[in-house]
Amino acid sequence: MGKYDVCLDTKVRNDEGEIAFTGRYCTVVLYFNGTNVGTTMNSLLPYLRAQPYSHQYESPDEESRRGLDWGRRFGSVGGPGFPKHTILSAAECWSSWKSIFVKDTKESDKYLSCLHGIRAIAASQVLWAHVYCLNDPRNFYNTLSLLDWESRDRSSTILLAKSYVVDTFFCLSGAMALRSSLRTLQKGKIMTAVSADLIIRWIRLAVPSIAAQGVAVLTLHYTTGPFKDIISEHVSDRCSSIWGAAFLLENTKHFEDACLMQLWYVAVDYQLRVLFLIPLIAIASHSNRRVLGFSLLSTMLLVSIFYVAIITYVYRLPPIFIITPKFLPVGLTYFYKIVISPMSHMASFAVGVCLMNFIEEQRSGRMRKFPRAVIILLWITAIIIGLMIISVPFQWQSGGDPETWGNILFSGFGRTLWCIALSSIIYCCAMGHGGPVNWVLSLRVFIPISRLSFAFYLLHCIVLGRLYASRRELIEADHFSFAVTTGGIGIISLIWSFIFFALIESPLSNIVPLFLKSKLVSPRRSL
Fold first, then answer.
1. 71: which of 11, 52, 232, 282 lies 20 to 30 Å off by Cα?
2. How far apart are CA 486 and CA 107, in angstroms?
């Protein structure tokens, strides 16, 4: 328990006589007493016990060679038919670095400049929520105090409610998907335009996701710490076997079979693009097919709401991801059935599509703008829903019964209501009724962070895993400790994201047009 000099030479053997603990490093021996989680989380028990790093698998030289060999699988980007200087110019790092700090948006995009602030704030909230929700209990002086603290501290509810924040990105994805469809369909050749958009989206999600796997493997290979062996071997083995399809299938994997669990978002985002393909084409066509498009959109929204409500009722799940002894046994079920399922996020995507439809239709003059009374109502709605989302779950966090209609309704409608509140704010800002809120969200300081938000999301979990793998000291469960962790992880993740964007994302956005030879490709600094 932190007294390394006492147990350096300790050796503990299991029933078969094999060495289970060498005493090289000391930490918490057991996560829980096994009673609460033993029957439902057997697959995680190896991760819930301290298994110190003992260099028992490979020598450092062999580890280095293995990591470099695995990294070579990613190869290099290139293709026949392009002059060498063209590829080099597109991938030139200096211009990529400078593009991060270009704080001007195109004149045609300025009405949506508030999205930069929303992306930046949402990315920081995701990190904050992950630090609270994904903290390794082995790192605390008293692991049960973590559950006791989070069940009594009402301020923790605000942080735990941020599990809905990821739906902010799905809502924005739906809005930008319709905007992209409206622009590409204006060029004619509907199938060509849609196919090109899906290919571009696939490339821009696939390449960074695969690169993130390489970063994770190499980072953990050069990590030392009590849990290095467990995490490094797991990530290396899983990523090396499924790296090519991980970004599309990661949300179908269980924890023990996944490469990087944060890639579930990438998979769900692309799956939603495919699922909403027909409604997007119909709505963007500005013809009689719009009725079909909105009918399908409404149906998918309702299916998503009922799916979450039914799953919550059948499996007795909490409305949000709550870390309490009562809900811990169903924590993985909540994650597998709701968090990483595209069915749960269809409502968020649909709300984003409706949002962009209202904005574009009213800006083009095809629809009358909302009167002042409606604008005021939208602001009131956003405030009320926001306060409800972050306060109501405390009754379940403090031990409330999950088998209630209130829990089921809140779980089913929670993501939809969150996105309605968010869409109300975006609409008001885009239509010139944002006032000081729009001014804050449109600050230029948010633009670089917004551009780095995808890289930040991919990498911050790797940095967090690196911290847990190497941590040798125990900490207290309090807001100050978590704030320090959040700040440190955030700064390091931003630095990594800057390098990742300059080497991967930005060159990729320049190279894609060289291969597709199409005017349908969006400029690098577009929203």
1. 52
2. 36
pLDDT, position 246: 54
Residues 119-147 pLDDT 10s? 999 998 888 878 876 665 555 555 566 66
Q: Tokens representing 81? A: 């038919």
pLDDT tens-place string over residues 226-278: 777 777 777 777 777 766 565 666 666 677 677 788 888 998 999 999 999 99
CA distances to 32, 239, 323, 391, 397 from 147, in Å: 11, 32, 6, 19, 10
Structure tokens at 171: 């809502």
Average pLDDT of the chain to the nearest whole number:
76
Angstrom distances, CA of residue 502 to CA of 85, 95, 247: 18, 8, 21
Please answer whether residues 346 and 301 qualify as being in contact, where contact means their C-beta atoms are separated by less than 8 angstroms: yes
Going by C-alpha positions, the residue among 441, 492, 486, 347 that lies closest to residue 112 is 441
Write the DSSP symbol of residue 375: H
Give the residues across from 19 on adjacent strands.
13
Q: Are 468 and 227 in contact (CB under 8 A)?
A: yes
Residue pLDDT, tens place only, 215-231: 988 888 787 777 777 77
Residue 215 in tokens: 């970063």
CB 122 within 8 A of CB 165: yes
Q: Look up residue 462 and give its amino acid.
A: I
Q: Label each residue of 277-346 as H, E or C.
A: HHHHHHHHCCCCHHHHHHHHHHHHHHHHHHHHHHHHHHHCCCCCCCCCCCCHHHHHHHHHHHHCCHHHHH
